[in-house]
Please model this.
Amino acid sequence: MNDKWEIKQAMIDTEDSLIGAILIESARGTNEAITKVSKILKPDHFYSIRDKRIYQAMIIFPGAPHIINTALEMNNQNTLQPKDCAHLSYTISITPCSLDYMDYANAIIAYHNSRNGLSTNTIKGAICQNIQ
Model:
């Protein structure tokens, strides 16, 4: 495997973990994760087209981004694709810690910036900046 492929796969996993963390926190009865993350993270920051569509639906839906609300909003936007609902469940199952949502968001932004030559920050630095 080459390093670029491994980094891209790690970022897709990070995006999936962010989606999962938002869903888990929402299920706990709080919108804190989506509220905080949506202030710094835009759909265009995502590498994965699927995760970009899912995140877009999460930030548009006026209520808590539970799985069903997210799927309904994607359906309203005509962006719901086969297997998206299964992917939402998958993101919950692979999320290491839902409390790390800001770390996931910062890593996604850092990777987006590095792909577009916008920043010299490292992805590792973005992941570690909130850990103190």
Observations:
- The radius of gyration is 14 Å.
- The chain has one domain: 3-128.
- Confidence is low (pLDDT under 50) at residues 126-132.
